[in-house]
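Reviewers of the previous submission asked for a worked example of the structure-prediction workflow described in the proposal, so we include one complete record here. The input consisted solely of the amino acid sequence. No template or homolog information was supplied to the procedure at any stage.
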Amino acid sequence: MPERPADLPEIERQRLHDASQRVRESTLAFLNDPTRNGQAEQQAIFDTHLIMLDDPDLWEMVEQGLCQDRLPAERAWMAAVDFHANRLESLPDEYLKARAVDVRDIGARVLRQLLGLPDVTLADITEPVLLLAEDLLPSDTMTLDPTKLLGFCTCQGGPLSHAAILSRALGLPAIVGVGGALRAVPGGALALVNGATGDVIIDPDPATVADYRRLHDVQAEQERLARVHAHDSAQTVDGVRVEIVANIGSVEEARLALDQGAEGVGLLRTEFLYMSDQQVPSEPVQVEGYRAILEVLAMRPVTIRTLDIGGDKCPAYLSLGQEANPFLGWRAIRVCLDQPDFFKVQLRALWRAALGHNVRIMFPMIAVPEEFRRAKALLDEARQELVAEGVEVAERVQVGMMVEIPSAVVLAEAFAREVDFFSIGTNDLTQYTFAADRTNAKVSALADSCHPAIFRQIEPVVRAAHANGIWVGVCGELAGDLEAIPVLLGLGVGELSMAPGRIPAAKHTIRRWSMASSQAIARRVLQLESSTEARHAVRYAQVASAVESPVTPNSGKGLA
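From that input alone, the workflow returned the following structure tokens.
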């Protein structure tokens, strides 16, 4: 075996630097392209790609591969990329899991540069098309003229995949995660995509095409009005105001949320500070990370969720171990309560960052009142320590909990006497209600939160909250579901927190309902037995009240 040259690490390091620099330059060129203005969600993804290219943990691992293991640049780079992507994919939070695609995408782009391979391009698309693909990565869209895209379907992906994000950014219909059936569709076939129902119609007859064109025109006008009034408050026809806020996990998403009309943040995921480090982020690092986001939001309300991490794997420094049923196991608040010193690092940082801002703190995955009391005691203890040290902290913050376990629903009255607010996490509540892993495609049919079984749990939580003078919001996917919104209003939910791109349409929907009609449809839905019946009931109520029905996106929007 030939001996490797002594200067191999330096040679490979330079090759990798040059390759990553070329990727950086092409990404900046995309971001600075004036024809891309207004596509804030897509640009936020590529802003994240630039941050990934500078990730010190990623480069530290690359350096280890180059110097200690004396690997060529390609192997050292992909080993580090795979490690970081695998770690994200192991997290229980769906948003963070979806970001693994971004890590692999930026990794593949640099690898192509190292190998001298051309970038993937869709520049040859010169006329309007419906794009069918195995999956759609961020870099796939860099050369795509958005004016030539009518909509798309992918075999893979989910509601937080780049394909779904792109559909919201461009206002295009999309259906993701269809499976292998798409592979049998020949290129050049005539097709219709219904983002409302999830239907893909191949070779439709002329009458169906005409119906779709009429529906398309109606929705186009509705979306235009929603965009025009995105920054107006959300009030029902009879003047009841609903707070519309955003789910975010970065500074970039905070800016995007404001651009889309968010009145604050209903869910700030703090996992972003933990997911890329190889050690627990220090108190100063956390303070800086939270403050950066809070500065963007100014004095708007920001609800910060304490660390919600766990599942089958986690960062090595947490030592969670393997579990047979990770989503029912040692995760979220359970990890934090069992490691109070670890938890208090975050709680101290939150108290410090909250100074001068409108911060609310909530604990995830609370099952019994004792858990909330212990978490609240640690929060109070953290503040007392800081005050004793002479550190400036917020005078007070609202302290609440997520309602995402059925036991919390059953015990809502007891919890309501101790918390400042409830935030209902419908994603996990649905998963636990139906005993259906929401990451398992085989049971995905049970994952529709717009089910009477979920609304019947929201109703007593809201009732207990109002009886005890506290407010209640919803921060799961259901909050941005246009067909669920009237039911949530009718049940008395006062805050809806959703992906930023859904905010204009959500506000527009609220303005077309009265509280009386919302309460009526809520009563009706509570008596039904399936999500299909619930959705049909909302649609019928809209038509019956002579309100033009908005088209609800499956993962994107509308019709093509």
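The chain is about 45% helix and 10% strand. We consider this example representative of the routine output the project will generate in years two and three.
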